[in-house]
Amino acid sequence: GAVVSQHPSRVICKSGTSVKIECRSLDFQATTMFWYRQFPKQSLMLMATSNEGSKATYEQGVEKDKFLINHASLTLSTLTVTSAHPEDSSFYICSAAKGGATDTQYFGPGTRLTVL
Amino acid sequence: DQQVKQNSPSLSVQEGRISILNCDYTNSMFDYFLWYKKYPAEGPTFLISISSIKDKNEDGRFTVFLNKSAKHLSLHIVPSQPGDSAVYFCAANVDELWAGKSTFGDGTTLTVKP
Questions:
Q1: Which residue of A has its CA nearest to B36?
Q2: Cα–Cα dist A36/A54, whole Å
Q3: What is the pLDDT of residues A93-106, one digit of tens each?
Q4: Which of A73, B22, B42, B88 has the most CB atoms within 10 Å of its CB?
Q5: What is the DSSP letter of B84?
Q6: Bond before A109 cis per omega within 30 degrees
């Protein structure tokens, strides 16, 4: 199988604090990991692409200083929402790709962030 | 400008019948298309994909059809089962090697009634 986990599954924080979300590929090495954001009743929006050992590539309109991404190893990527505000409340989903010509991505279960 | 559109936000079908979910795209550079299924509060699950060199790909009860000239693809589920009830996302890529850099549609909520 190809299992991707996220931790925590749900987090509530106060405005102004920072929150770290972990994404782990449990049984494979992920060359590339992706971070998505989903607003209620809306589609997934790709935020950034991260490759192990290099800086993440952010999509247009995503603040890199706001959403810090670290892909420390082939099995772990973290997303830190810095100085969170209520408008950052959302469902954050990561995915991981093994790499290669058929680069199917496997999604994590998502993290529900609520900023009070 | 939304490049991938799923114009039907919801679809309801009877168990055993065919479910047809539609997706339109505007970017002619897209050459790889995927369908995902998503339950509430979970991440999407990959269902089936199709490359632009094909017009049909079948996997069990799921078949994806691609009409490049119309920039349209559809997902057929036959026969539909109550467990198929979920949100279905269509996604498109400009490069098959980068399956993660997908542009997603807004999703269609499928309800299969017993």
A1: A107
A2: 19
A3: 998 887 643 456 78
A4: B88
A5: G
A6: no
Q: Where are the alpha helices (H) located in chain B, listed in sequence order?
A: none
What whole-number distance in Å separates Cα of residue A48 and Cα of residue A51? 10
- Taking any CB pair shorter than 8 Å as contact, residues of chain B touching chain A are 36, 41-46, 49, 89, 96-107
Cα–Cα distance measured from residue A35 to residue A77, given in angstroms and rounded to the nearest whole number: 9
Distance CA B55, CA B32 (A): 11
Longest dimension (CA), chain A: 43
Q: Report how far residue B14's alpha carbon sits from residue B27's, in angstroms, rounded to the nearest whole number.
A: 34
Q: Which residues, 6+ apart, have CB-to-CB distance to A84 below 8 Å?
A: A13, A15, A16, A17, A18, A19, A113, A115
Tokens describing residue A51: 């490759």
Residue B28 amino acid letter:
S
> Measured in Å, how far apart are chain B's first and last C-alpha atoms?
38
List, as one string, the DSSP characters of A40-60.
Answer: TTS-EEEEEEEETTSPPEEPT
| Average pLDDT of the segment spanning B100-114 | 85
The answer to whether A19 and A84 have CB atoms below 8 angstroms apart is yes
Check CB contact under 8 Å for A43 and B98.
no
Helices (DSSP H) in A2-105: which residue ranges? none
- Per-residue model confidence (pLDDT) at position A17: 96
Closest CB from B36, B46, B100 relative to A32: B100
> How much of chain B, in percent, has pLDDT values that exceed 70?
92
The C-alpha atoms of residue A74 and residue A99 are separated, in whole angstroms, by 11
* Cα gap B26→B4, rounded to integer Å: 7
